[in-house]
Amino acid sequence: MVKNVFLLLIASLMTIVMSPSVLTATDDVTVTRVSDARAVETVPLPEPEPVVVKAPVAGYAPVYWAPANNMVIGGRTLEVIPVGSTKIDAGNHVNKYGSLLYGHNSYNVFGSVLGMGVGSTFTVTYGGVTTTYRVANAITFEKNGELLQLNGSGNFMDAVSRAVHMGAHYDISVMTCAGQSLGNGDATHRYVLFANAV
User: Fold this and answer.
1) Is residue 63 part of a domain?
2) Which of 27, 39, 62, 194 has a Cα-to-Cα distance from 117 of 20 to 30 A?
3) Separation between Cα atoms, residue 83 and residue 85, nearest integer Å
4) Do 176 and 122 fall within a single domain?
């Protein structure tokens, strides 16, 4: 058993030494040539080639990893997760319930949404399809327990989740907290953007 492990180790070292083009290292690392299981010569690695970062080409976005279902809004790419209820906490991502995307008004999530209004745009990639949306309406609702109200009356939560407001139908709605903080990521109001695909 020991002999097999030793032979495997020697074979691995020989593969590395015989294929130096796959090695990468810092300046203080050296490669030792091995012959008959004893060190014969230590050879310093050549200086690494500098990494060249090309400036972005106009009209092309830089390549980066993004979740398959995501939303790009306010300069942030956020993961979008489908949920079965608006009562499910969004955490550090965006929840999708019907036509509603909702998330916390925090720096890492929807902190920039309060600065958006009619004419602002964002993109959503869902199910392999990317769509750009333009905000057509922005409303601040009062939060009264589980109700979304205007001027202390009504319940607009169902309509908001279907991207409907006062009889107008939109393609999507985006909601985050607004007003005074109530703690635990909650607040006295909800800011809702109603948007249509462009």
Assistant:
1) no
2) 62
3) 6
4) yes
109 and 31 assigned to the same domain: no
On whether the CB atoms of residues 163 and 170 are closer than 8 A, the answer is yes
Q: What is the pLDDT of residues 38-58, one digit of tens each?
A: 555 555 656 655 555 455 556
With contact defined as beta carbons under 8 Å apart, do 140 and 155 qualify? Answer: no
* CATH code at position 165: 2.40.260.10
Nearest to 102 by CA among 35, 6, 190, 24: 190
In which band, very low, low, confident or very high, does the pLDDT at 8 lie, cut at 50, 70 and 90? low
Predicted TM-score (pTM) of the model is 0.66
The full DSSP string for 107-127 is TTTTTTGGG--TT-EEEEEET
131: left (phi over 0), alpha (psi -120 to 50) or beta: beta
Looking at the 3D structure of the chain, how many domains does it have?
2
Domain span at residue 34 reads 2-44
